[in-house]
Specification:
The structure is a homodimer. With about 400 residues, chain A is of the alpha/beta class. Chain A has 13 helices and 17 strands. Chain A is globular, with a radius of gyration of 21 Å.
């Protein structure tokens, strides 16, 4: 008799967004005349920029002609895309990341979920709390996290690094053994950042303690502060301890096009084995490349026209972020993030719970956000708003909240 | 200190195609004037059909406008695609597979590699020999296959089911315990098929013995014989024991567009757990959907115009297959497959090895094929040719082989 992966059954279920959906549906039924504004999920709303649309059309035409048709893509991704990433995302910032250390994929979520597979089951993972759920869940499914304590909302073998207003959302170096450290900066969900000197401490810790850092830089495009690193490879020694994951979803609106990449430096080894060769093996065995037309779209992100258009698109969302940040401050809220990130993290007023504030915001303002407790126990008492709506809706949401 | 997944290190390395590439490169350097014909790899050469190109352009335009832009796709895939698959691939053949049992993905290779993850580590897998390497390699990486015997080319915990000319390429039901049985029909690499009564035996065996069948039907579009099932769900009882994986790569030339799907019937359970919910959880945690534009391209595969164009495209490759099959027979070879599949499997002449025949074909005819031993020990003494070249090249290759 075949058996199933019992570790899957340990997952408590992703009730957060389904609970939100249920509450929203009930509210809409009771208040059909009220127009809801959704600042909850992390999906973008602006259309794909013209330079990228043009590149897509051109690539589609190529696929329709025998002499320009493209079949299976190279395992690591097309050279035209990897080389422009190497040049513009890394070498332009002084990071010596060559094209052959870049693995193009169908998105940062896949890479975030799959990367744990190249590590042994016995590794202890450390995550910020609150945290993007994929890091923890993918390790639960691999049997790496021990038992779930449903009252605490924590796993017995996971090292949690609380990020709260008390520590300025800067996690402390783990006191317990931690082998694989997940860091996401600019941070989802808090919208906060680490300055270069702070990130350097983590790189030094990893090198000194034989840990590896999985650095999720999906929101890099939102950084405008000067002392915030865009890549972990801006820190000395990161190539011997860090893997970096990037996305095209938030800088170029590719949530529905699917493109991302992961950097595994050739200097990153464990007992003589290059992690690069392990990840290459995973790519070669369980993946068959991102679509040619989407890789051409990715290339257009780095063109002069593409960059100009995307600067505007990111500026649009950053204006939303500033509108939320300033508006909520005006309304008397304690607000964080939102400067170098598309997320605004706020403290719920009068110590009410995340879910109580969700209900209040829905009923009194018709605005949907995300309860902070959905991202981990230290998210209780906090709430996330996102900058990915339209500007008009964002302003309207703030006005409604001010009128509460 | 972090550790790596040691099971990755057990993989003997995929030398097959790199060895082929090296030999071809050396030959080309020595014979720069000679034009090589490649009938080795399984990649297609015909461009994407006009109806699909049109659908892609339309979807690209939608992505460029705010009111028709599409962000994150639904976890299982868009309803418009899943419902047409349900209707045309299944219900039209009498298989009651509903849209909500279909999971759209970025291709059959990803699904073939990832599906093992929802099963326990202790399961014993059974594979045909020769076999598509992904089934075995993905289980090696999960630590499910025991130790490798490099002289035999086999894993200690894998049940091998030889498929050779002696048994008409029909595998025998496993005598040893087998929990997860991989079957690929029409078969890669042998190009042979199972008739419905033969496949029914496997379904009955699985139901009686508590095994699960992973049925890879990537080459379904090439079936023209009447008694060959297009789906395992044409067999009675398959919904309680079988998962089916399908591809758009070979019926519609999507090798570079990336689209596939997997059917997990809701009737398929283990100790009360629905495999459907496990696969849904994997999709939800480690994948973020196939691109909207590619799912629209997939929908066009099922349109009247798309179907008409793709019938021609498949007929084109089937003509190549017949050209190879008949031509090789004329030339005195013992040849198999090629009727309901794009692969032709031939016995090497005078008992020479697969690699010796590879060298002979390369040097004497300038034709590149794939040594059968690359697909497993029972592939030694066999050789694979594919029908995915152009018709002109295919004819020329056969003429050259006849002149050897």
């Amino acid at each position: 008799m075949f058996t199933i992966n019992e570790d899957y059954l340990k997952l408590p279920g992703s009730y957060l967004f389904s609970d939100i959906a249920k509450k929203v549906a009930a509210y809409k039924e009771a208040n059909p005349e009220k127009e809801l504004i959704r600042l909850g999920i992390g999906d973008v709303t602006q259309p794909i920029a013209p330079a990228i649309i043009e590149a897509l059309h051109k690539a589609v035409d190529e696929m329709g002609q025998a002499d320009t048709f493209h079949g299976y893509a190279p395992d690591l991704g097309y050279e035209f895309l990897r080389s422009v990433i190497s040049k513009q995302d890394y070498k332009a910032r002084g990071c010596e990341i060559e094209a052959d250390q870049i693995f193009v994929s169908d998105g940062a979520k896949s890479d975030s979920g799959n990367i744990q597979e190249i590590f042994g089951k016995e590794n202890v993972i450390a995550v910020c709390d609150p945290v993007y759920p994929v890091y923890v869940d993918s390790n639960v499914m691999a049997g790496r996290t021990g038992e779930y304590d449903s009252s605490a909302g924590t796993w017995s073998k996971v090292v949690y690094m609380p990020c709260t207003a008390e520590n300025g959302f800067v996690p402390e170096l783990p006191k317990d053994k931690a082998d694989i450290i997940y860091l996401c900066y600019p941070n989802n969900p808090t919208g906060t950042t680490l300055e270069k000197a702070e990130l350097q401490k983590w790189v030094d810790y990893a090198n000194e303690n034989g840990a590896v850092i999985i650095f999720d830089a999906a929101y890099e495009a939102y950084i405008s502060s000067e002392n915030v690193p865009h890549s972990i490879y801006e820190c000395d020694g990161a190539k011997t301890c860090a893997i970096e994951i990037r996305s095209f979803s938030k800088n170029a609106g590719f949530t529905g096009l699917r493109l991302g990449f992961t950097v595994v430096p050739k200097e990153l080894t464990c007992g003589g084995t290059h992690l690069h060769s392990l990840w290459a093996r995973r790519h070669g065995t369980k993946f068959n490349g991102a679509p040619y037309i989407v890789q051409r779209a990715g290339e257009a992100v780095y063109s002069e026209a593409g960059k100009a258009e995307l600067r505007e698109q990111v500026a649009y969302y950053k204006k939303n972020a500033a509108t939320i940040l300033d508006g909520m401050k005006d309304a008397g809220y304690e607000v964080y993030g939102g400067v170098d990130a598309p997320y605004i993290w706020l403290k719920t007023p009068q110590g009410i719970s995340s879910w109580q504030f969700f209900d209040k915001l829905l009923k009194e303002a018709g605005v949907v956000g995300t309860p902070g407790c959905g991202f981990g126990p230290s998210g209780e008492g906090y709430f996330r708003l996102t900058a990915f709506g339209t500007y008009e809706n964002t302003c309207e949401a703030i006005n409604r909240i001010k009128g509460m």
